[in-house]
Amino acid sequence: xxxxxxxxxxxxxxxxxxxxxxxIGRTRxxxxxxxxxxxxxxxxxxxxxxxGAGISDRAxxxxxxxxxxxxxxxxxxxxxxxxxxxxxxxxxxxxxxxxALDLDDGHRLARGHPGAAVIPTAxxxxxxxxxxxxxxxxxxxxxxxxxxxIAAARTTYGNTGTWSAYAVVATAAALxxxxxxxxxxxxxxxxxxxxxxxxxxxxxxxxxxxGSDVKEGIPWSVVTGLVALGLAEAGHTGPRNILDSARHYRxxxxxxxxxxxxxxxxxxxxxxxxxxxxxxxxxLLGLIERHATDVEAIDRIEVETYGGALRISNKPDPTNLVDxxxxxxxxxxxxxxxxxxxxLPISSRVLALDEVKKLASKVVLSxxxxxxxxxxxxxxxxxxxxxxxxxxxxxxxAPQGEAAIPLSWSALEDKFRAAxxxxxxxxxxxxxxxxxxxARTGQPAELMACFEGLTFGEASER
Length: 462
Hints:
It is a single chain. The chain is of the alpha+beta class. It is built from 19 helices and 8 strands. It has helices at 16-27, 34-53, 58-70, 87-99, 115-129, 133-153, 164-176, 180-193, 198-201, 218-233, 275-291, 307-310, 321-325, 328-337, 354-360, 369-373, 409-420, 426-440, 445-453, and strands at residues 76-78, 83-85, 106-107, 266-267, 300-305, 363-367, 381-387, 390-393. Strands 6-5-7-8 form a 4-stranded mixed beta sheet. The chain has a two-stranded antiparallel ribbon with strand order 1-2. It has a two-stranded antiparallel sheet with strand order 3-4. The protein is globular. The model has no long low-confidence stretch (mean pLDDT 94).
């Protein structure tokens, strides 16, 4: 990897952006630790499942069409579609598919989803630069590190799109060998230009946002980050002191980037819905299984949880899939009446079900101050089922897939199969899983071939 020339003067590297740029510059050539490498492959496998599940979603099709029409031609694979595009177009389209169904990974400190921005960027830029496998893995680890660190330092909450452009710059710059001076400006341009998400990030200041395909703005943050890097490489400047603003960010005195890789604390989702919904789902399923509950006899479902879970829309009668993904009542009713397969993956068939709406209307949400005090380090819920004079109450429940109790590799493979079962044959699923496993042992060729040669569902016809 050859470092690109800088059109700027030297960096003093005393500001936060300078320190982050220096971290990228000194670590991108290093092989990552074995735990971080394993975590990166877990994230790759998980994101491929989310992408496959979302490949035929309406929002994905729209993004793919726009990428092909407006972002130029190229040979970078648009995963599982049989198509290819420019570097930026493929990264955009792949991010859109990965984040469409809210099945992508997340990070507790970031309160958001780094993988859907970082991994599509890494593979697109890796294809462009001909990066070796270990360079690709290092860039992914760097992207998670930078994105999560900046997200965790925000003084106010922002949806993923408000900070993931930083992660995109870090990932792409690591693979391109961009100079530290240019990286500083690219980070600054990305931070100042990122999707603002002013409405979606602060729903308490007005009506809850209508469910829409914009969601958290992750795909557009990929475009923003890649454009920001290109601009900086061409000599465009940004406000390099953006991360030094005490109004917007509060970093620790020592950044300690990479000392405990952020990617190793990633969580994975077993339901295609907002993470705030997962703890109530697991608590409810546990009660139904332990007490052999007759779902038809339920009079009320009480959910005690933390404030963040109460700030999503939580509509008991959603009219679109995005509203379903942000509704504790509807998702609880779905999983009680139909089973977990209704949310892995999710499809339009779960809309407008009268029996689900009826049960969803019996869900009562309330704030538990004890659980709220443990957020965002933990996302807990307590659920009570009321049937006549009988009450069954769960313990405070954490969602499955947390970093503290990680899913096994075989569980992630099972998730991949379940998530893609409607769009991929068993042979196609087996090909992807085998390719990822071979890449883990240092043989990436088959993984790249999967991206170029496999078509899921009807993606190639849209």
